[in-house]
Input
Amino acid sequence: MSREKYGFRGVRYLDTMEDGTLIAADKYTHSVKFIGADGTLRLQLGSGKSARGDYQLTTPEGVEVRGNQVWISDSGNDRIVRYLLR
Output
């Protein structure tokens, strides 16, 4: 996984889904990126700017998949966010 292809600037922790999708917390882009097993960026949570609100993050550092839920440690906002997968 390259910095140029996905715009990584501080990847911290990651987890994988059953279908092989990689979920990576990217601290300095204030986002969590979902990368398919085929290498395509499927989803990005967070706008790339530090923010608080629905689907907005500030320095996320951890992710964990539990069934159809992704738990995100949103460190800069002092909270844990639950994202439901469909």
In short: The chain has one domain: 3-84. The chain has a mean pLDDT of 92. The helical segments are 3-6.
